[in-house]
């Protein structure tokens, strides 16, 4: 009885090839934003406009988040990536988690062009 149940679960759980549970469109480009105490690794990140771009947050030190003004991008330890399509422009972003003494200085820009 138990064995059959395990088998059934294994059958369902295998290979989720772009499963429907994922609410994201396939990305055509990606950018990795690395956050540490207390900065982002670049002063600006450039991504293509009108293109699905995967935005990936990588915390290399400490716990930080990203909230990008004027977009739906809101990443943090619970959600490390998202796919967005943006119009051309410059979007400011900052750390969204109160991470310590350098928090206020954790600002950068997403340049969409
Ligand atoms: Cu912070």
From TrEMBL:
Record InterPro entries: CcO_II-like_C, Cupredoxin, EfeO_Cupredoxin
Residues of the Cytochrome oxidase subunit II copper A binding domain: 24-113
Cellular component GO terms held in the UniProt record: membrane
SUPFAM superfamilies to which the protein is assigned, alphabetical: Cupredoxins
MF-aspect GO terms: copper ion binding; cytochrome-c oxidase activity
UniProt-listed Pfam families: Cupredoxin_1 (PF13473)
Protein name: Cytochrome C oxidase subunit II
Protein species of origin: Cohnella pontilimi
